[in-house]
Amino acid sequence: MNRPSHFIATLLMALVSVMALGQNVRADYRVVPLPGSINGIKSADFKLNEQCLINYPTGNRDMERNAMMLSQYVEEVTGIHLSTRPSVNAKDNAGNITLLLDPKTGSDEGYSILVTARGVEISGKTPAGVFQGIQTLRKSLPVGAYATVLLPAAQVQASPRFGYRGMHLDCVRHFFGVETVKRYIDIMALHGMNRLHWHLTDDQGWRIEIKKYPRLTEVGGWRNGTTLGHNSPVNDGIRYGGYFTQDQIRDIVRYAADRYITIIPEIDMPGHMVAALTAYPELGCTGGPYEVWGRWGVADDILCVGKDHTLQFVKDVLDEVMQLFPSEYIHIGGDESPRVRWQECPLCQQRINDIGLKTQGNQSAEALLQGWFTTQVQHYLAQRGKRIIGWDELLGCDVDASATIMSWRGAEPGAQGAMAGHDVIMTPVGPLYFDYYQTSSTWNEPTAFGGCNTLKKVYDFEPVADGLTAEAKQHIIGVQANLWTEYVTCEPQIQYQVLPRMAALAEVQWMQPEEKNYADFKTRLTHLVDIYKHYGWTYRAKSLVLEDEDKPKD
Ligand code: TNX
């Protein structure tokens, strides 16, 4: 470039920056998920700039952290740096943002944002509610570098429809490290979610350090290769694995808790256990040898529950798991557990005899044996103040109604479970398996499990069936989408699978069904995606512009 044109270019760039800084850009509270109410107030706009402070109640550590997070978010999104300060004096509110706890503010995670020319108040009954208000304010800001942002005077209020608003992440089929999991947590926080269901053990790897059984990760954490594509005969032959140390887990649990996200660990049992069997073959019915799986599907080799030693193993593992995860819930899996080994195993048959289990209708003695095993685990955890979640297969095993059920083989098992008195989390394959394709036109997509769960299908999902009794409806406590990672090998692919479908899920989790509107959601989604871009997250852009199969066919 010659000198005069270089000079002109520099001048133009400087001019553009000055214009951006001088521009009066306004916030828009119509974010995703849409708050329950946004009411304008007769007042001038509030001017958000570096003169503003963030007040939080003196001595409240959670609110102090909330204030620091708000400061960080505002700076990330707009470039405006806000200092924080402890204060309980209402006169400090003038010209500033004030975070406060107010017992009158809606539900536990509900929030209220009051904006006038004089100041901004974000209140909630709990610090978790205030954090949700912070997310809404963060998402309403324009993305860029500004000196001042105008906040229109308004009262914004919301309260989530469901208390359990989850995302699941499988760190077994492919392993993802601490930073990736933390970023997943960040993405969840932006979407107002509060439960991370963390899948840590399976046939293809054991990913949580257990001090008492070091071979679980030393041996079970590694496989000798991975099949290419959908269980092709070709295996890449590359040793693959990894695991989280207990220190790393504690760090991640704390990181999530700071964002009001509870991590629910899943130790899948008695099936999906080949990695553990490889490390300790005596835990199986045949005694092995076993090999950590390098392909996908359902393995016949599961835990031998005829041996007392196996029960002791499970309790020992859960002891360490409970130490690491403060969550009231522990997920104990229970899915896809074939019983062919138990049918042949003298010890399992002996157990069936000893307890006196007999085939009842369409429940085999072996199915009831899984029920017995699950109940043992459930009692063990209950004595320690914990509750179990299991996959909907548990409904066929005569398990006590205090077990919470995850409905994955459609929404019907969940409806039945709720009628039978179980708490239920809805996570049906259609449309909440985010390892499925997002379009039926898959030729140009990264390899996925199969299926077709479009953005619109996710948006339109209604977790509470009309036919349920009022009591059963109360048992539907939450909604979650699952990301299994057989075909997801790296972080950008994780993000591609979940974004923007998480945005649609967030409206299912937060909004009342009659308030939802897909066309309106799509208009609001554009700004949320600007935030994705700003953070450098990968997402499926085509879901924004094309309606895919939701378009009328010609
Ligand atoms: C079924 S959902 C499974 C997982 C697979 C998933 C693939 C469930 C309880 N089990 O093991 O990864 O399908 O979509």
Task: Give an account of the 3D structure.
This protein is an alpha/beta fold. It is 36% helix and 16% strand. An eight-stranded parallel β-sheet has the order 17-12-11-22-21-20-19-18. α2 runs parallel beside α3. The radius of gyration is 26 Å and the shape is globular. The two termini are 51 Å apart. The mean pLDDT is 95. The chain binds ligand TNX. Ligand TNX binds next to loops.
Q: Strand-residue fraction? A: 15-25%
User: Distance between termini?
Assistant: 51 Å
Bound small molecules, by name, code or SMILES, are: ligand TNX
Report the oligomer.
Answer: single chain
* Side-by-side strand order of the widest sheet: 17-12-11-22-21-20-19-18
Main sheet? 8 strands, parallel
Unreliable residue runs: none
- Percent helix, as a range, is 25-40%
| Number of helices, counting only DSSP H or I runs of 4 residues or more | 19
Question: What is the overall pLDDT average?
Answer: 95
Q: What is the structural class?
A: alpha/beta
Q: In total, how many beta strands?
A: 22
Rounded to an integer in angstroms, the radius of gyration calculated over CA atoms is: 26 Å
Kindly summarize this structure in a few lines.
With 554 residues, the chain is of the alpha/beta class. It is built from 19 helices and 22 strands.
Give the key terms:
19 helices; globular; 22 strands; eight-stranded parallel sheet; 36% helix; binds ligand TNX; 554 residues; alpha/beta; seven-stranded mixed sheet
